[in-house]
Structures are given as structure tokens and as C-alpha cells.
Design goal:
The protein has one domain. It is globular and about 50 Å long. The relative contact order is 0.19. It has a two-stranded antiparallel ribbon. By secondary structure, it is α+β, with helices and mostly antiparallel strands. The termini are far apart. Helices cover about 35% and strands about 20% of the residues.
Length: about 90
């Protein structure tokens, strides 16, 4: 951890980012890096790597598992297990 904002935990931003990452990936992709730095501190820039992974999936995804936790340490922990939907029309109810 580094800098004055090391250890910043912004659960509201984190969860909103995860929501958008799943349903509206263009929204976090358009977010300037400086905004991510303000909201999530330097460690939050790992979100860029997540966006690269999201680009490898289909537009529609199923959430197989989602977990967010703030342990007794300096950072929050977010976990998403996503599966690309091969034929979105066949999953409509």
C-alpha cells in the first residue's frame, strides 16, 4: 500500500462499479483513471485489468458467484465469477 490514501475503502463505489461491470461494462470502461484513483485509491486501478477480462466475455453474462468483503486489513475484497451467455435469446423467460 502506498500514499496518503492507502487503505481507502469505498464500499458504495466498489459495489456500484461491480454492478456496472456486469450489466453496463461500457460505463466503467469510460471512467477516467483519475476518477478511479479518487474513488478507490491507487489499488483500485486493478479495475482496468478486470475490464480487459470482461471484454473477453459475451455481452450478456450470468453471475455464478458474487462476494464483497472488507476484512480487517487495508483493502476490500471483491469476487465475481461470471459465465458468458452463448445464446441470450434462449435464456429469456
Amino acid at each position: 500500500m502506498q500514499g496518503e490514501r492507502a487503505g481507502l475503502i469505498n464500499a458504495q463505489f466498489d459495489n456500484a462499479w461491480l454492478d456496472a461491470f456486469v450489466d453496463r461494462p461500457a460505463t466503467p470502461a469510460a471512467m477516467p483513471h483519475l476518477q478511479v484513483l479518487r474513488e478507490a485509491a491507487p489499488e483500485g486501478l486493478e479495475c482496468v485489468m478486470w475490464l480487459v477480462m470482461r471484454g473477453a466475455l459475451t455481452d450478456d453474462v450470468d453471475i455464478r458467484h458474487r462476494f464483497y468483503h472488507v476484512p480487517a486489513s487495508n483493502t476490500a475484497y471483491g469476487l465475481l465469477v461470471l459465465e458468458g451467455v452463448k445464446n441470450p435469446a434462449s435464456t429469456a423467460s
